[in-house]
Structures are given as structure tokens and as C-alpha cells.
Design a protein that fits this description.
Shape: rod-shaped
Helix content: 10-25%
Oligomer: single chain
Number of strands: 12
Largest sheet: 8 strands, antiparallel
Radius of gyration: 30 Å
């Protein structure tokens, strides 16, 4: 038995609808590829910025309390110029430490037995220190900061391992990752770091 299959030809409105559908699919695919490409570029730029210019760091330990505490997440700025009072992240061995710059190259540092710090004979005003202490100091005082180095101290002077001890010593400029700018976690304490 022969069966005849009759195929109907699409009319103009069906062809126009199919053509519009195909155009929409092509436009959708172009938009999707473009959006994915933009997202990849933005993500790569964000990673690059976070790695090179604005490192994001998590604080471990309590040597900088009350300024920054264990578990906080901060953003640093990779600067090449630093001044007294800057809170910085720095490499020491294979550890990342957070300390405050007290004196710059060539300056003289002295610390009395009560923990008062003098730079070039002037007593430092240190409102960020809750309890002054002489700490673990084995350097000869007064001490002159070598060229290309910075004298750093932790804000929690009783427990901080810092430039007062020859085990850490003064920090070379190349060891400094950056100056801490913002606290981003926990959110209720988010803000600038001083």
C-alpha cells in the first residue's frame, strides 16, 4: 500500500516567526559570550588588584591588640613610602606579621624601663597602646635604625616580638607588604585602621 505523505509548506508568518526566533537565539548567544568574557576580565582584574595593590589579609595572634585582633580581615595598600605610626603587614621568614612603624631609617629609638618610647629624644604619643611595657628587649639602647630599614613595634607590648629583639630586628623596606587601610571583617567593626 502506498501512502502519500503530504507536507505543507510554511506560510510567510511561520517563516518570519522562525527567522525571528533564530535571530533571538544568535543575539542571546552573543550576549551570553560577551557577559562571560566581561566577568572573566573583571575577576582577573580583581585578583590582580588584590594580589599586587590591595592584599587582603587575615589577622592571626594578638600582638597588635587593641588595634587589630585575631580573626579580623583587613585590606592593605601596597605603598612604597611609610611613616611613623603606620600599621603595616610585613614578611618575617615565612610568616606575615602586622606591626606599627615607630622609626624610619637614621632615627634614634630609646625605650625606658616603663615602656615609654622616644624617637630622636622626643616621647611618642601612643594612644593606641593600652599598656606600655619594656617587653622582650635585647638590643642596646638608644638604637639607631639602619638605612633602608624601619623600627617596628606591636601595640600589645608585653607579648609582641618586634624590633626590640635581635631575633626580629629592624625590618627592611622590601619585607613590607603594605600599610593596613581597612578592616572588612567582622562587619560591625568595619572601617579604617589607625
Amino acid at each position: 500500500m502506498n501512502s502519500n505523505i503530504i507536507q505543507s509548506r510554511p506560510d510567510v508568518s511561520q517563516l518570519e516567526a522562525e527567522l525571528a526566533h533564530e535571530r533571538h537565539k544568535r543575539k542571546y548567544n552573543r550576549t551570553l559570550r560577551s557577559t562571560v568574557g566581561i566577568l572573566i576580565v573583571v575577576a582577573a582584574a580583581a585578583v590582580l588588584l588584590a594580589t599586587i595593590f590591595f592584599p587582603v589579609l587575615r589577622i592571626y595572634g594578638s600582638s597588635m591588640t587593641p588595634t587589630v585582633t585575631d580573626g579580623e580581615v583587613v585590606i592593605a595598600f601596597n605603598s612604597r613610602s611609610f611613616s611613623s605610626g603606620d600599621v603595616t603587614a610585613l614578611w618575617y621568614g615565612n610568616k606575615l606579621l602586622v606591626k606599627r612603624i615607630i622609626a624610619s631609617p637614621g632615627q634614634w629609638v630609646n625605650i625606658d624601663e616603663d615602656g615609654n618610647v622616644f624617637v630622636d629624644g622626643q616621647l611618642l604619643d601612643e594612644p593606641y597602646v593600652s599598656e606600655k611595657a619594656f617587653g622582650d628587649c635585647n638590643i642596646d639602647l638608644p638604637y639607631q635604625v639602619p638605612d633602608g630599614h624601619y623600627f617596628v613595634l606591636g601595640d600589645h607590648r608585653n607579648i609582641s616580638q618586634d624590633s626590640r629583639n635581635t631575633a626580629v630586628g629592624c625590618i627592611a623596606k622590601e619585607q613590607i607588604v603594605g600599610r593596613l587601610l581597612l578592616r572588612v571583617w567582622p562587619l560591625k567593626q568595619a572601617g579604617s585602621i589607625k
